[in-house]
Amino acid sequence: MKSGIVLLFLVLMACLTTFGQKKQSPKGDEKGLIKVSVMYPAGEGKTFNMEYYETKHMPMVAGLLGSNLVKYTIEKGLASGIPNQPLPYVAIGIFYVKNLADYQASIAPNRDAIRADIANYTNIAPVILVSEVVK
Amino acid sequence: MKSGIVLLFLVLMACLTTFGQKKQSPKGDEKGLIKVSVMYPAGEGKTFNMEYYETKHMPMVAGLLGSNLVKYTIEKGLASGIPNQPLPYVAIGIFYVKNLADYQASIAPNRDAIRADIANYTNIAPVILVSEVVK
Prior knowledge:
2 copies of one chain form a homodimer. Chain A is an alpha+beta fold. The first copy, chain A, has one domain (25-132): Alpha-Beta Plaits (2-Layer Sandwich). The first copy, chain A, is built from 4 helices and 4 strands; from the N terminus they run αβαββααβ. Chain A has helices at residues 2-24, 50-63, 100-107, 111-118, and strands at residues 34-41, 69-80, 89-97, 127-133. The N and C termini of chain A lie far apart (49 Å). Chains A and B meet through helix 1, strand 1, helix 2, strand 2 and strand 3 of A and helix 1, strand 1, helix 2, strand 2 and strand 3 of B. Strand 4 of chain A pairs antiparallel with strand 2 (69-80) of chain B, so a sheet runs across the interface.
């Protein structure tokens, strides 16, 4: 009986931990977060090395952001969603952060290193949008 | 002892259910999904009614997509991430779908109704990017 109670207690603890994790990260719950979207416009003569971007550049920048970074994503442009329109962007990297001021404070002292690394994977000058997830 | 075992069984079932749900929706697991990003460029004289967009337009379009739609998000543009550059987009609505062909098949017969509704919240012609989440 005693070992049964101990086992029950352990299982309950595991459950509580699991429920706790679920609460903090339900599917698609990005509401209220700040998104920093780094968008690379398509165009003639533009090049982009996705492998370098995914394995070197994005992890390097993400590593500067500490616990302010909730997640980051990378997407590859496929087409315009409007028939007969050119592809708008070849790639987009997105950092989801809790706080814009902390993001800026992390990036500012490393701006030169980040810019220097961009030449390693693309000749495109990115457009950067700071936005707030409202839904 | 018997009631202890029954309780233990119930707690275990609850745990398994919870773990099962977690597996299907881990945080940020959008990899492999298709994103359709509808981006509204900022500019002089441009207007955008976020409340209408969030409560009427996006739910209407999302409702057309059925089980192909994994989630949709809405963001509000705050600033350019590059100093002294203008805000690129006032708003972006994003549909995360499993399959582009099914998305197009759902939208095509409703294109006129969707376009007609755009005039209810903005005078901006959106840029639309179809992309694949690679990370």
